[in-house]
Amino acid sequence: MEKKSEVYETYVKILKDELLPAMGCTEPIAIAYAAAKARDVLGSLPDHIYIGVSNNIIKNVKSVVVPNTGGLKGIEAACAAGIIAGKADKILEVISEVTDDQKLKIKSYIQEVPLKIEAIDNGEVFDIIIRLYKDDKSATVRLARFHTNIVYIAKDDEVLIKKDLDKALANACFEDKSPTQKSASASLTVMDILDFADTCDIEDIKDVIERQIEYNSKISEEGLKKDYGANIGKTMLKYYGDSIRNRAIAKAAAGSDARMSGCELPVIINSGSGNQGMTVSIPVIEYAKELNVSKEKLYRALVLANLIAIHEKDGIGRLSAYCGAVSAGCAAGCGIAYLYGADYDAIAHTLVNSLAIVSGIICDGAKASCAAKIASSVEAGIMGYHMYLNGQQFLDGDGIVTKGVENTIKNIGRLGREGMKETDKEIVKIMLKE
Question: 26-162 with 188-431: one CATH topology?
């Protein structure tokens, strides 16, 4: 791929803008970010709080531990942490520097300050509105469509920022870019991704990929050392052995064990999700160690895996009833195949095979069981590649599988975005015991 081409430049930008550091599950962190921003606008601690959130935010915040809060869970904890200790300029690491004294204040603040939470439906799957009051003053911040996209800020009756969501794109990578760049996300293809992975200048992607290796490896190791969640990673190693296949699965799960239980280490996200960022990278990193490949080969494999995961999620959307670990785990299988020298046909078949296996896994929010779903998804990614090596494949007409990898990806996008809308609503009702 030509380095000066617009597609090349866009692919580099996608990686830099998508593979960001975040501490804690990104939905509660987005609430904390919005709350910290609103507090800055208000200029003081509020004495009354309103939080409006879409159903998918409720789903993904309800059961996960918010880091640096002393084990607190939920929307109230995320908002209070942002107000008391948040540093908005750190964005998705907004509550990474909370003191012990502030942790105590967060707990007491939740108990003392009136706080109203409301489910809202403005037509956006991802929607957060934080409104803070102090005496006769107020500040409002709204995030919509993705985790860092502030679309509205007001102080009292003065509107400071207002974006037109009908014209806004769902991905920050493409703001203020040409029409070609704006459409590049929609025109991502497995073939072009492989071309980019094969030919990109390592210096253009080295820093962001190296950071992913460092951060995500560290939290994976943490998950195996201590007692987190349901300890899926440890369970995998205890009962299924120390083969490279099982280590890759277990270490990805262990990162989620730690993260969903409030571990305060940051991760590098993919498609707005830390779990997806770990799932798409840790298995590839583990296989690279086993195969003793060069650092450059690992970088290129991770470029491929990350971009394929983003490509899959582009049609589904940031949040859905379709489990994001599936996209990431299947993409990890492609990255592993790349380490073995796989060509386009092998990678395309790996992806189709693996998607056919696990595309029925639902997302019922962020919590301990995410680690188990990650394990199943990575296993499917590896099986998809081994099926190809064994001359086996799922064929056109086998359920949602259609001839051509791009057509199957389109089917997955349709399933996740459109087909599972009602499923998503029922999941939220079940979780809220309605």
Answer: no
> CB–CB of 60/319 below 8 Å?
yes
Given 3-state DSSP classes, what are the helix, strand and coil percentages for the chain, each rounded to the nearest 5? 60, 10, 30
CA distances from 344 to 127, 174, 197 (A): 38, 27, 12
Q: What are the per-10-residue average pLDDT scores of the chain (434 residues)?
A: 88 93 88 96 94 90 88 92 94 91 93 92 91 95 90 93 68 41 65 96 97 97 96 97 97 96 91 94 98 98 97 88 95 98 98 96 91 97 98 93 94 92 89 78
Rounded alpha-carbon distances, angstroms, from residue 99 to 69, 102, 264: 10, 5, 13
At residue 78, what is the residue type?
Answer: A
Residue corresponding to tokens 């296949």: 245
Query: Mapping DSSP to helix (H, G, I), strand (E, B) and coil, where does residue 261 land?
Result: coil
DSSP string across 372-397: HHHHHHHHHHHHHHHHHHTT----TT
Length of the chain: 434
pLDDT of 178 reads 38
Q: How far is CA 118 from CA 55, 87, 218, 235, 343, in A?
A: 10, 25, 37, 39, 50
**The domain defined by 26-162 carries CATH number 3.40.50:** no
Question: For domain 188-431, which architecture applies?
Answer: Orthogonal Bundle (1.10)
The per-residue pLDDT for 167 is: 57
Domain coordinates of the chain in residue numbers? 26-162, 188-431
